[in-house]
Amino acid sequence: xxxxxxxxxxxxxxxxxxxxxxxxxxxxxxxxxxxxxxxxxxxxxxxxxxxxxxxxxxxxxxxxxxxxxxxxxxxxxxxxxxxxxxxxxxxxxxxxxxxxxxxxxxxxxxxxxxxxxxxxxxxxxxxxxxxxxxxxxxxxxxxxxxxxxxxxxxxxxxxxxxxxxxxxxxxxxxxxxxxxxxxxxxxxxxxxxxxxxxxxxxxxxxxxxxxxxxxxxxxxxxxxxxxxxxxxxxxxxxxxxxxxxxxxxxxxxxxxxxxxxxxxxxxxxxxxxxxxxxxxxxxxxxxxxxxxxxxxxxxxxxxxxxxxxxxxxxxxxxxxxxxxxxxxxxxxxxxxxxxxxxxxxxxxxxxxxxxxxxxxxxxxx
Length: 365
Fold this sequence. Notes:
The protein is of the alpha+beta class. It contains ten helices and 18 strands. The chain folds into four domains: 2-109, no CATH class; 111-178, no CATH class; 180-279, Band 7 domain (Tetrahydropterin Synthase, Chain A, 2-Layer Sandwich), CATH 3.30.479; 286-363, no CATH class.
């Protein structure tokens, strides 16, 4: 005989030769020969035992102490303890001690990907449910396409989307709807007159039709790159080197004209484009520098000759005026005497008093 004490909120299962004989609650008991007891804390949520649950359920006392929850293969059971969400039960048979807490169970069908509106959306962010859902977020500057089992379902606007995780395949393709930039760098192109150069080109665009961009075209951005690249080569190839250097802005207009319709077929709207750089080979750059230097020298010579001609014409006009006007001639003399005097620090005079009269005669007609 063995004496056993069972405390409050505990239960004891008495087995004899592996078979459940009795269920003991709070109190003191004596065990007979060959009997074993296993104690369980009913404050713990779940009842676990190595014995078969079906055998234990044959005991009516045991059945009265548990909540028996049967969950089908396509279901989940949400467990609420004292009205608070606690855990999730998957497919199978579950026995939960009644204990001191009040339990409620809500079953949800997960065979359909859509989550029923009766399920509190706040629960979907809690750890117990995270492994059973698929979540997708579409930002405010994005749009997305929803595919179910490989079939296009609908377009998704900005927001959070959650679905049950099951055998159904879900794919969400997103794209940025803001204005985007694309660089086409280092394109080696021959001009109409066979001059080889490298061009860096830039375009700004935005996705205008997400159905065309993602559903009807594969890698629309790569296709757009090729389209712009070919249009750029075509435009530059129709211009001579001199035409290209004189009017680079024509390239952007021609590229835009050639690609607007093709970009629209890709679901893209071009907003702006232009040539960033034209890189010349070393020998061509040296020749261009020589031409530039020669042009500037020629311009400098023209300006010098123009100034010399104007100066000579001014002197000729002055000479004609002085020839006809003695007073003007005398004033010119006085001007030069004044300029000479500005450069003289000291004047030494020698001779008789007639020197002053001689100086006077210089300024008197």
